Amino acid sequence: MGLTPQQWETVKELFETAVEKPAADRALFLAGASQDAVVVHEVERLLANHTEAGTFLSSPPLAAVAMATAVAAAQSFSPGDLIADRFRITRFIARDGMGEVYEAEESLVSAWHSNPSARNFCATHMPWIGLGAKFIWPRK
Amino acid sequence: MFANMGDSHEVTLLLSALTRGDEEAGARLIPLVYDELRRLAGSYMRRERPDHTLQATALVHEAYLKLLGQQSVDWQSRAHFFGVAAQLMRRILIDHARGHLRQKRGGEYKKVALNEAFIFSPEQSAELLAVDESLERLAKLDERQARVVELRFFGGLSVEEAASVLGISPKTVKRDWSVAKAWLYADLKEHHGIDAAAMGDGQGAV
Fold it and tell me: Closest approach of chain A CAs to the CA of B70, in angstroms?
């Protein structure tokens, strides 16, 4: 990037002021605040990325790992589990106050799909089958 | 679910050892932090709707407070603890991500602390390593900003806590954090072609 320490200090100062201004006013502010094209370009680059960054780096990774571990441990089912000899869990979707929501497929339907003639029949007459159904498990 | 008194007492002893420059004490400290994080995360899961971003941040604070517990830990020891914890968390996570990628490529996996609990996808490991590399580049340009990111991202510290560790004002921490995030975001895109926007919700960055 090739900024001198002095240029970098100026970049930080201008960024701090510019980021508080409405986006439409920033270019005019920068044009009047510095004649150094390198500095202005760097501030503009940082401003654009600041807007894009959103929640970037907002979650400490070690805690996120702990949370992911807890989520996995708290789920009632894992992918592949068969419920009531009929519903095969494909993935966990979400949890709320009412319970857990999983995506599941009916194993009977899977059997149909493994049969070519049945699969053709399904594809023609029952295209909705096999898309995956939501499966709701009440909270314990 | 609370950290037991044994943990809290051990943390106090480890803090004293750290103050004397005992590096071994740091290595024993992080598993205590992580165990507490996991205990708290489990507790959150049982009573609340999961919101990874908010909860992961709150989780760190709660874990630190419980570990420091009722012990009369002075301000300097507390700041020291925060600073050391952030450095160690960074090192352990990066070691793990590197080892995980090596294992995926068929190499030997050097065991690191906490490995039993981490489930990184190769993409997540690569993203974490990319953040670490970008942070190294930022440190060459602005060492203090890189330290602020280490404290806030890897250590999970608040603006005020990071300010106390570095001995600067919260306003300066806020400014450093804001500039550093934008700089790192741009750097990740340029050097790694990574969709940095996906790394903020606790899913991508781990």
Answer: 23
